Amino acid sequence: MDTEQTDQTGLLMPDFTTVPEKIVPGTYKVIIKDAETKVNYRQDRDGKNISAARWTLQTFGEQDEKNNGRHIYHQTDVNGFFAGRFKDLYKAATGKEYEAGPFDPTTLYGLEIEVTVGLQKNDPQYSEVKAVRPISH
Q1: pTM of the full predicted structure?
Q2: Mean pLDDT, residues 82-93
Q3: What beta strand segments (E) does the chain contain?
Q4: % helix / strand / coil in the chain, to the nearest 5?
Q5: If 0-12 CB within 10 Å is exposed, 13-18 middle and 19+ buried, where does residue 81 land?
Q6: How far apart are CA 50 and CA 26, in angstroms?
Q7: What is the mean pLDDT of the chain?
Q8: 37: which strand partners?
Q9: 3 near 13, Cβ under 8 Å?
Q10: Cα–Cα distance measured from residue 32 to residue 34, given in angstroms and rounded to the nearest whole number
């Protein structure tokens, strides 16, 4: 065990000096870095299985340097009622409509978009992506 993370009694020594501040609501330029696929992670009210991608987006090009390199997470269902979020993200990143068929999330890695981050309606201590659009350079 790392001795810098414990005291002499073996108790944990929390250190928050490198924890970034929460991202504030606003519009950010981001690059799509990663995605975790979630197959059949829930069912809709009709019992249909819903799958999603949980995207890791990384900020760049911000005037305030502390906001560069920050991670923003955005989940898009790929079927069902909320699949429009995926459709919007895909079009913002590629400039094209998504055509039917299997999708490999890695095809969007490295592409840039703009996101608007706002507070969650039902839990305003947390933020969420409210909108995505093509990046304006």
Answers
A1: 0.83
A2: 96
A3: 26-43, 49-60, 71-77, 112-119, 127-134
A4: 15, 40, 45
A5: exposed
A6: 29
A7: 90
A8: 53
A9: no
A10: 6
Taking alpha carbons only, the member of 105, 108, 24 closest to residue 59 is 24
In the chain, the percentage of residues whose pLDDT exceeds 90 is: 72
Measured at the CA of 121, the angle between CA 33 and CA 52, to 5 degrees, comes to 40
Query: In the predicted model, is pLDDT for residue 4 greater than 80?
Result: no
Q: Which long-range contacts (CB under 8 A, 24 or more apart) does 100-107 make?
A: 103/78, 105/35, 105/37, 105/53, 105/55, 106/35
Cβ-contact 108, 35 below 8 angstroms: yes
What's the pLDDT score for residue 19?
76
Question: What are the start-end ranges of the H helices in the chain?
Answer: 84-94
DSSP 116: E
For the chain, first and last CA: distance in Å?
47
| Token couple for 25 | 């609501």
Q: Can you read off the two tokens belonging to residue 103? A: 């999708």
Amino acid (1-letter code) at residue 51: S
